[in-house]
Amino acid sequence: MKTCQILGVPTQSGTSERGCIMGPTAFRIAGLPEILQELGWQVEDVGDAVPAAMPDVSHSNPAVRNLDAIIAWTKSVGERAYEMAKACDFPIFLGGDHSMSAGTVSGIARHTQDLGQPQFVLWLDAHTDLHTLHTTTSGNLHGTPVAYFTGQSGFEGFPPPAAPVDPRNMCMMGIRSVDQAEKRHVAEIGITVFDMRAIDEQGIVGPLTSFLDRVRAANGRLHVSLDVDFLDPDIAPAVGTTVNGGATFREAHLIMEMLHDSGLVTSLDLAELNPFLDVRAKTALLMTDLAASLFGRRVLERKTRTY
Ligand SMILES: NC(=[NH2+])NCCC[C@H](N)C(=O)O
Ligand SMILES: [Mn+2]
Ligand SMILES: [Mn+2]
């Protein structure tokens, strides 16, 4: 049986809105571990990560908030993610704000490097999260993990990622809120971005298939990072950074179903769930259902199509 380990990463220091600390609990109450078991996985919930000791740090950009806590989380989550990748077939990380992914992706990529394979990342988000400590104006470090784990400079005090992800191995979908500094950066480093306009024009199947083909051709391992604000706020209100015009229910499920059928996904973040902002748990339940689709739940049994 395929094995999966689930780790809670209750970070909220990367945001200015409190509540993401409750995210892992909400996913557990929504029944995520049991649902994956029913789908035929051997599931082990390994509890919640705790941050490493906080370093004594300051930064020249006065906007930066909670740098000590984010460095401490990045260190410990990076180690936990690396151990999980060695110990099971499929690590899942329950956030927690998106600063969690500085740790999760860098730990996962370190293991992928040990295997001698390239790491690919699918980033499903309204935002590119590509700031550095120097370019962020909000100071909220959940806006920075992609720059960190792709090895960009500007992360003084952080442990350097052992295996920086090649930005050309990254695909972003759902993007619709990008700051000036991020726009320059994204073009420069060569990430493939399907913004919301591209999705409107081309749909999901073409863009996602072309990326999955690249992952397969390179014999890569694929990490998926799903931010709640990828989804439209009408269906997913439980996030501190809602942006109108997000992915629909069907678009999101189609992505998850295609990812499952591809057989390429080897790890997952469920990020930014803020249960304090939810409406009768509908966002927690939707995110859980999306994970179920990624793990093989489908409406009707049918022959697997390979994308
Ligand atoms: N993970 C997220 N929700 N990130 C939102 C970041 C928003 C904005 N770009 C900022 O840096 O403040
Ligand atoms: Mn994000
Ligand atoms: Mn976002």
Automatic annotation (TrEMBL):
Q: In which pathway does it act?
A: Nitrogen metabolism; urea cycle; L-ornithine and urea from L-arginine: step 1/1
Q: Known SUPFAM superfamilies for this protein?
A: Arginase/deacetylase
| Cofactor comment text | Binds 2 manganese ions per subunit.
User: One GO molecular function term?
Assistant: manganese ion binding
- Recite the UniProt keywords alphabetically: Arginine metabolism, Hydrolase, Manganese, Metal-binding
Residues binding Mn(2+) are 98, 125, 127, 129, 227, 229
Reactions catalysed according to its record: L-arginine + H2O = urea + L-ornithine
What are the required cofactors?
Answer: Mn(2+)
- Give the enzyme's EC designation: 3.5.3.1
| GO CC field | cytoplasm
Task: Give the record's family classification.
Answer: Belongs to the arginase family.
Question: Which PANTHER family does the entry link to?
Answer: ARGINASE
Q: What is this protein called?
A: Arginase
Q: From what organism does this protein derive?
A: Gluconobacter roseus NBRC 3990
